[in-house]
């Protein structure tokens, strides 16, 4: 009853009363100064009017800043209760009605109904990127190849330092296309499932010569759902690079360098390994139990933002269920999910669903990371476009805790 009696106001009203920017409100939330809840639509942030008024009378809180307090204003992605919203549009609702390419351009431009043509890579740049991989071991992970590919594509592009929006968007299209086209084909000749990024990526990750249409749709959905996620670790790295006017290739390289961490995009690789160990659904308790016994994190379980569940993961997993009911790899994934819930562990996230997609399609090891990297390139470049318009670089300050300076 007490909760219902409270008055809740939106972020605009709260920011005006406090005389701060909206981004500062979220810093206050992370520090426990203000409480926030989501509106009935799951999108708007609401603040307790009494707490806002009390804070306004007391003045702004003053104490040592924490690393989580870095806040950057952005018009790109709002994180709702269980899903992201791209420039105000529900990412889940974009699946099915939009391609990955159109979602990327929506993030980049904010313009609806963008005319869409196939994205083309530059043949000479792709040849150079393929050659640059020649010394790698045959079992090199796709994420490692992508770092070499992006660097090579950048070195071969004399236009990479043109940072006006139109040039960056054109670079983004050829860059994403080049990342996909320069990956080695899994089968010979390379399978093409269409001229879209999803269709071409399929042939670089899965040996299936005739992709199931519903599974190809699931791959497209994964690309859309992973296109951006506000200031995730890799995106922050990309924004810092862009803030000092690093070129788009360097921005993407910065993101890739962070993405493969096991607490970020690399989590899907951990799930792939769990699925590979689960030869039979009956082995799921042992696979989960061994990790818990060793004190390991369970990859693909829980999310730092979506405490009650990641709707992206649920949505994608449901698409996979509908596409391949009864598939043995799906049965293994279902058994792992059941074990997570039986042990009351956190709900699965999108990394779990992406790894399941890789398993049921027979994709190469590390395919989930590659899907994540290609998808998130759209978001990294959208954030870069925002930073290129700013005049000052991002420069967080450290709270020094070492010995006092020695002065003579």
Secondary-structure map:
Layout lengths: L1 H4 L2 E3 H8 L3 H9 L5 E3 L6 E4 H10 L18 E3 L4 E3 L2 E2 H4 L5 H10 L13 H10 L9 H14 L9 H17 L15 H9 L7 H13 L7 H11 L4 H12 L7 H11 L6 H10 L17 H13 L4 H15 L7 H11 L6 H22 L20
Antiparallel strand pairs: 1-3, 2-3, 4-5, 5-6
Helix pairs in contact: 6-19, 7-8, 8-13, 9-10, 9-19, 10-11, 11-16, 11-19, 12-13, 12-19, 13-19, 14-18, 15-17, 16-18
Detailed description of the structure:
With 408 residues, the protein is mostly helical. Helices cover 52% and strands 4% of the residues. The chain is built from 19 helices and six strands. A hairpin with a 6-residue loop joins β2 and β3. The longest helix is centred in the C-terminal third of the chain and has 22 residues, at 367-388. The radius of gyration is 22 Å and the shape is globular.
